[in-house]
Write a structure and sequence with these properties.
single chain, 528 residues, Four Helix Bundle (Hemerythrin (Met), subunit A), 9 helices, HlyB_4HB_MCP, HAMP_dom, transmembrane helix
């Protein structure tokens, strides 16, 4: 509640209420004065003017009666008396009525007036009786006696006239008092109004000066602060010296300035951070783009090598299938020559020796196939990782080609040995009957060789399919790498656009001028 008395609203309302109070005082004073003057006028009319009029009528009737007496005295004729007498009697009655009307319902508070009225009320009946006595004497035509009566009546008339004059003077004095009171009331109202007007002018002038100072000074300060903020100058020193509405306005401007300063600082730091991040992103994208291009080239070379390896493995599988077919034919030939070569024990021994070599060669082939399988697995792993741009995968591919060549040489050697065995079988056909049982064993051995070669062929087929899958994976990796390269280019363009936008943001907020100490402090806090 105490803060309300410090507000501009209270000050303006108080000044208006003070002016209204002065206007009410002036109005009430004027109304009181007007009522007093009106009351004096009414009292002057009812208590002075009308009584004076009635008193004048009484005085006129008294003088008229006296004139009538003088007239009858002057005429000294019965005819003159008879002519004047009706008017005289009527005047006497009117005089009686006039005085009764003058005194009816009146309270004479003035002692002097009451004494005069009492004497008139006492003398008027005597005057009336004397006049009536004069009339009686005049009716007897005794004019000499009437002269004495008229003289006595005139003496009483003079006294009555004097009293009526005194009463008129009292009423005139009362009228003068009413006039003096009216003038005094008018003067009081006039000077009261002048004093109220002067006080109102002084209060209004003082309040106006105070209000102008209380409004224009903080308002000018608020306009100055708003102008600085509009020009981009922030971190202004704003101090509200009052708790009124303009003080609240300055406090709101201070909070707005602080909030804008904080926001602009955050925008500046954010734009700088975004700019640095955009630079780092652009640099990283450039490096990533270079590495992606290198990886794409390596994958292209790897894909080409895998294609060649696939063709080699396919060729190896074909050779294995041919060897399998030859082994199958050898088995059939062994079955056909089973009866013939039974007597060829010596030849069969040599065939056994050759078979032993074939077994060794077969073991070599099996080892090669096993190593080929392991290398194929390594090639798959290397192809999946594609690390170091496929350098390791190239080594694996070279080993696979070497093993494939050794497999081909072994298969060729097997073929030559089989040819030798066939020749020996032809030479030992005469002994085939003796070595039938041994031939059966040879047949079984050849069958096992055929099965082994079939396994090699199947493994070669599996290896070929695996290498094809690896090749497809490498091709897909190449496509993904190309797509990644395109995405890297897009990311680089986006980073460049982000960098330009950050620069534009910094340029936009550069129009705001901040306190350098506060800005460095915010940067230090951000860095911490």
């Amino acid at each position: 509640m105490s803060d309300f008395f410090k507000t501009i609203k209270f000050k303006i309302c108080a000044s208006f209420f003070a002016c209204i109070a002065l206007m009410v005082a002036i109005g009430l004073s004027g109304l009181a004065g007007a009522w007093r003057i009106a009351k004096n006028s009414e009292d002057s009319y009812s208590m002075v003017t009308m009584p004076v009029v009635k008193l004048s009528d009484v005085r006129a009737l008294q003088l008229k009666v006296r004139v009538a007496l003088r007239r009858m005295q002057a005429l000294r004729t019965d005819t003159g008396v008879q002519q004047t007498l009706p008017g005289l009697e009527a005047d006497l009655q009117a005089l009686d009525r006039g005085w009764a009307a003058y005194t009816h319902g009146r309270r004479f508070r003035d002692e002097k007036e009451r004494a005069v009225v009492d004497r008139i009320s006492q003398d008027l009946p005597g005057f009336k009786s004397k006049v009536e006595g004069v009339v009686v004497v005049l009716k007897t035509d005794n004019f000499d006696a009437a002269d004495d009566a008229i003289a006595s009546a005139e003496k009483l008339s003079d006294t009555l006239g004097t009293l009526l004059g005194q009463d008129a003077a009292v009423n005139a004095d009362k009228a003068r008092q009413f006039a003096i009171d009216s003038r005094s009331t008018f003067g009081t109202v006039l000077w009261t109004s002048v004093a109220c007007i002067a006080i109102g002018v002084l209060i209004g002038g003082g309040v106006s000066i105070v209000l102008i100072g209380a409004i224009t000074k903080p308002l000018g300060k608020a306009v100055d602060v708003a102008g600085k903020i509009a020009e981009g100058k922030l971190d202004n020193r704003i101090a509200a010296a009052s708790r009124d509405e303009f003080g609240q306005l300055l406090d709101a401007l201070r909070r707005m300035d602080a909030h804008l300063s904080k926001t602009v600082r955050e925008i500046v730091m954010t734009s700088e951070t975004v700019g640095l991040a955009a630079d780092e992103i652009a640099s990283g994208n450039a490096d990533l783009s270079a590495r992606t291009e290198t990886q794409a080239a390596s994958l292209e070379e790897t894909a080409s090598s895998m294609t060649q390896l696939t063709e080699t493995v396919k060729h190896n599988a074909d050779n294995s299938r041919d060897a399998n077919a030859l082994a199958t034919n050898a088995t059939m030939m062994a079955d056909a020559g089973n009866q013939v070569v039974q007597n060829m024990v010596g030849t069969i021994a040599r065939i056994s020796e050759s078979s032993t070599k074939i077994s060794d060669i077969t073991s070599v082939i099996e080892g090669i196939a096993f190593q080929t399988n392991i290398l194929a697995l390594n090639a798959a792993v290397e192809a999946a990782r594609a690390g170091e741009q496929g350098r390791g995968f190239a080594v694996v591919a070279a080993e696979v080609r070497s093993l494939a060549q050794r497999s081909a040489a072994a298969a060729k050697e097997i073929k030559e040995l089989i040819g030798t065995s066939v020749g020996m079988i032809e030479d030992g056909s005469r002994q085939a009957a003796d070595v039938g049982a041994t031939m059966e064993e040879v047949k079984d051995a050849i069958k096992r060789v055929a099965e082994t070669i079939g396994g090699i062929a199947a493994a070669s087929d599996e290896q070929s399919r695996g290498i094809e899958q690896v090749s497809q994976a490498v091709v897909q990796m190449d496509e993904v790498t190309q797509h990644n390269a395109a995405l890297v280019e897009q990311a680089s363009a986006a980073a460049q656009s982000l960098k330009e936008q950050a620069a534009g943001l910094r340029k936009a907020v550069s129009s705001f001028r901040l306190d350098e100490g506060g800005l460095h402090g915010d940067r230090a806090a951000e860095a911490a």
